[in-house]
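Model it.
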Amino acid sequence: MTASPYGQAGTDAAPACPRHPDRVSYVRCQRCNRPVCPECQRPAPVGVQCVDCVASAQAAMPARRTVFGGRVREGRPVVTITIIVLCLLAYVVLRTAEARTALVFVPFAGESEPYRFLSAAFLHGGFLHLAINMYALWIVGSVLEPALGRWRFAALYLVSAVAGSVGVLLFASPYELEWITPVVGASGAVFGLFGAVGVTMRRLGRDTTQILVLIAINTVIGFTIPNIAWQAHLGGLVVGALLAAAYVYAPRKRQTATSIVATVVVAAVLVALAVAKYAIS
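Modeled.
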């Protein structure tokens, strides 16, 4: 008779943990009945379970979803933090105007270098500009990302950023100075988040007075203080609100499909608007 490597009852072999064969354990998993060492033990309603059984049970469980279809995750808002880090790195690495020339958005250059529509959203004109936008992003992103889920939040931010540049393009005239004026900043994307928060709170039946006042104040600032691209604010705000409406008002059973279609359609409309503007300019 041969002995089981896990030390089954009726054999002379000492029971050993399958994951750590050099460790003897007389405690067994309540699900698979294998020996489990202290390192591999996980508390269970009765006794303990091994890490393999716990992992299998977790994988079999359906993912928890928010009311808007986003996956419930523990921890910090990863997408928000990633965007902030990228903006900080861009500020540190691309300090000189020469280093940023190829990435800023300039209406006349957008047709031949369309990447500028997005790259400009990760650049800032100064530390105060960067600090204000990143603070707003952190405050709003910490609430919105867990509610919408990571991919919806990322899509909302990026499409709103592009919408900000498109807004600048649509209001620019080839015969005016703004056609060759560079624009940078995450303001368009941040205003998209402002619009999304307002729509989301409205969908939940919450009071939207504070967010509306915040949007109004920032809109007035954009029109009264020079060197602020209010066109980018407007473009981001409108698109962010539209996308958020599609995300949060989608039927429960078709939330993912509706969100994907809405994101693609809005992005396509922005591209069409930009193409049309260049065609008539």
